From TrEMBL, chain B:
One of its GO terms (cellular component) is proton-transporting ATP synthase complex. The lineage of its organism: Eukaryota, Metazoa, Ecdysozoa, Arthropoda, Hexapoda. One of its GO terms (biological process) is proton motive force-driven mitochondrial ATP synthesis. The keyword Metal-binding does not apply. Belongs to the ATPase F chain family. Its main location: mitochondrion. It is found in: Mitochondrion membrane. Keywords: ATP synthesis, CF(0), Hydrogen ion transport, Ion transport, Membrane, Mitochondrion, Transmembrane, Transmembrane helix, Transport. This is Mitochondrial ATP synthase F chain. It comes from the Eukaryota. The chain crosses the membrane at residues 79-96. It holds the Pfam family WRW. One of its GO terms (molecular function) is proton-transporting ATP synthase activity, rotational mechanism. It comes from Bombyx mori.
Amino acid sequence: MFSQSSLVIIKLLWSKLSKFLTMIFRPFIQPRFNKQFLFVPNFILAHTSTCPASKPKCGASAGKGGTTSIKKIDFKRAEKSAPCRFGFIPEEWFQFFHSKTGVTGPYIFGLVFVNYLVSKEIYVLEHEYYSGLSYVVILYFISKKMAPGIGASLDKEVDAEIAEWEKGRADQMKVFETTIKDAKDAQWRAEGQKILIEAKKENVAMQLEAVYRERAMRLYQMVKGRLDYHVKKRRTENKLHQKWMIAWILENVHKSITADFQKQALNQAIKDLALAASRVK
Amino acid sequence: MAFGDYPKEYNPAVHGPYDPARYYGKPDTPFSQLKLNEIGSWFGRRSKTPSAVAGAFSRAWWRWQHKYVQPKKVGMAPFYQLLVGSMVFFYAINYGRIKHHKNYKYH
């Protein structure tokens, strides 16, 4: 209902107001009071010096998880009320006599005691007695007839209420357990996230590597291309030079072959041929 | 000590949850285990302030309650016991009037 900060402010204002009221109502207030956490005036709910709220709580001195020093509740709620005879006389009174007088002892004692009271008229049998006797008889018959039925239905109601409380507690435990399980689940998922992020990082690294290699290859191709161009250019120029040189040489040679030289060359060739032909024969 | 306070000697860290049927004072022999000649000294040791007497009655009442009223499934026993107890008590306080209704003069 109240937020944390507004609660703090309210506590502060209340402490101031309570100090003021203490001054005014000093004669009506207990001499010592401790921390107040309820919104009621001090002089109604002042803790006295003996109030256990000021003493150390159960298990406060035990520390963390010290179940050995925390006092457990050593009395338990009984299932049924203690056994009685005749509906109201406690069983223990019968046991009290048993060692000395056996089983009939308490009945004899009861009879004798009642006899004494009636005969000495300490218990006067006046009209109250007769009306009481009628009541006893009526009660006896009513209880004989209706007790089991009423008892069973009331028992069922008690069991239902206990079961309801237990169920509430069990449900709350289940809620807590599912909360714990979900929290553990969330932790497991978070760890999975870590692995996922590692995988993503790996992915990105691979992509970077791929791009780097692609660019390195491209660089190589570029450089090679340029070098190839130079080589091709050189070779082409060389070819051109050769071609033109050959052509120029041939042209000059052809120019230098005069008609005279040609005639001489022809005659020489005929002589050589005749020589060769004579040799063959 | 105001009305409704816990006994001075009760300490939740030592005794655990409060049991109204239990005596939290200085440990002493229980009344049922006393010998007859010790009864006087036993009474001498106990505190006899009004609040202590009231505490004794309260503890007795709570002991009876723990045994017959507080269990989960309770029969008619506590009602009958209260009925008989109140019958006896009221007969006792009215005896002065009732004894004049005697039927016989000589017993």
